[in-house]
Design goal:
Elements: H1 25-32, H2 62-71, E1 86-93, E2 99-106, H3 134-145, E3 151-155, H4 171-177, E4 183-187, H5 195-203, E5 207-215, H6 219-224, H7 231-243, E6 247-254, H8 261-277, E7 282-287, H9 294-300, H10 309-322, E8 326-329, H11 343-356
Parallel strand pairs: 2-3, 3-4, 4-5, 5-6, 6-7, 7-8
Antiparallel strand pairs: 1-2
Helix pairs in contact: 8-10, 10-11
The chain binds iron/sulfur cluster and zinc ion (ZN).
Residues 340-342, 365, 367-368 line the site of zinc ion.
Length: 375
């Protein structure tokens, strides 16, 4: 067990009332609209490190930003285009909170054309489009090794509707292969949700659900993440899905770079509000990680720190309290966020809340009962 620094003694965050923040309503509204640099509001807990450290050299210009993000990367993993890079069987709370057996397949395919600041999915991608039939073959390989399931997630480390990633010619065979599943979940960048999405939907037997990485509803941070879409773009894509009777799942980052821990919690909550307001049926909270090169550089420059398990609990509790849809906390690799002896109990609690979709009794810990510094 690692020793605790005072700052690492966290989770009373679970009780932080963000309504006590020291901004006036006008300041807060302006900041949320991205009209005020957070550093310009003196004395506020919303003072944060969002001003880019010039030493870091993180560019403002999107094209230069792309180059910077890529320049920080290491090597990719070597992959076989006929084999998914991972697959697993799990149970996930479905509508009506019934546990649904779920086959999750992480497809090997061409790298996503975007260069999001925090993304590490490129590590398991190829530099070329897979041959026709390869994606279907990968799905067959995974399904032949997994128990039966009610729903299937086809996650391709990019956008399923990007024709360079998943060839359009493969849609029909894929749809046949997965015809037994009642629900099919794929992921996509908002800009790629259009005709290809409708085409795929029209040939599916099961219900289509599209997952979008909103990441954050804080517009200035969303821009810095290099996601290349705005909140309006996101809302339009959500409406498009709704009009076509396609369900929406949303990925939300807990404490993306340029935010303090408290801001991270606050904006995870706001992002949940925004996502459900846009019609999301499911929101998945993902604690932001380093490890892709770019995030490590930000970490070194003091512009990113990973969130705590306690903050993830707080955001999850908020989402569950809303009762607007299912809320999941991503507990994969959760040990890396451990900061206290209670971490494993907190992780187990979230795992349980993921399954039952209800808030359970809080973990009582004498070690971490203090509100952390907002750094
Ligand atoms: S769109 Fe998704 S897969 Fe592509 S770079 Fe951004 S986060 Fe990664
Ligand atoms: Zn503790």
């Amino acid at each position: 067990m690692q020793s605790l620094s005072p700052v690492a003694r966290l989770p009373a965050w679970a009780n932080i009332q963000v309504s006590n923040h020291p901004l006036s309503c006008e300041e807060r509204a302006a900041w949320e609209r991205g009209e005020v640099e957070s550093g310009s509001i003196a004395g506020s807990m919303f003072i944060q490190s969002s001003t880019i450290n010039p030493q870091l050299g993180y560019p403002d210009d999107p094209a230069a930003r792309n180059r910077w993000v890529v320049s920080m990367r290491g090597e990719k993993n070597r992959l076989d285009p006929e084999i998914p890079y991972a697959y697993l069987w799990e149970e996930e709370a479905g509508e009506n909170n019934r546990l649904l057996p779920t086959a999750t397949i992480l497809l090997t395919n061409r790298e996503c054309p975007y260069r999001c600041l925090m993304c590490d999915l490129w590590k398991n991608t190829l530099d070329f489009t897979v041959p026709l039939g390869a994606i279907n073959q990968q799905i067959k390989v995974a399904l032949s090794n997994l128990p039966s399931a009610d729903q299937i997630k086809l996650y391709n480390a990019g956008s399923f509707f990007d024709p360079s990633a998943i060839p359009l010619e493969d849609y029909l065979e894929i749809a046949k292969t997965i015809s037994e599943f009642g629900r099919v979940i794929v992921e996509s960048h908002p800009s790629l949700i259009g005709e290809n999405c409708l085409r795929f939907n029209s040939i599916l037997s099961g219900k289509l659900e599209v997952a979008i990485g909103l990441e954050t509803a804080h517009a200035p941070t969303l821009e810095k993440l290099n996601k290349r879409f705005s909140l309006d773009d996101f809302r339009r894509s959500a409406e498009f899905l709704k009009e076509n009777d396609i369900d929406l799942r949303v990925f939300i980052l807990l404490r993306p770079p340029f935010m303090t821990e408290l801001e991270g919690i606050e904006w995870a909550k706001r992002s949940l509000d925004f996502a459900f307001d846009c019609g999301a049926k499911v929101c998945s909270l993902i604690p932001t990680r380093s490890g892709n090169g770019a995030m490590d550089a930000l970490e070194k420059a003091g512009l990113f720190s990973q969130p705590s398990i306690g903050s993830l609990e707080t955001a999850m509790e908020y989402g569950l309290e809303l009762k607007k849809g299912r809320v999941f906390a991503d507990t994969w690799d959760i040990e890396r966020f451990a900061a206290c002896v209670c971490s494993s109990a907190r992780a187990a609690r979230m795992h349980n809340m993921n399954r039952i979709q209800r808030i359970t009794v809080k973990v009582d810990c004498e070690m971490c009962g203090e509100i952390p510094d907002a750094d």
